[in-house]
Amino acid sequence: MGITYVEGVVKGASAKEEQVRFLVDSGAAYTLLPEAVWKALKIKSKRRMAFSLVDGTTVERNISECHISLPQGEGHTPVILGEHGDTALLGAVTLEELGLVLNPFSRELQRMRLMPA
Question: Exposed, middle or buried, 82 (CB in 10 Å: 0-12/13-18/19+)?
Answer without folding.
Answer: buried
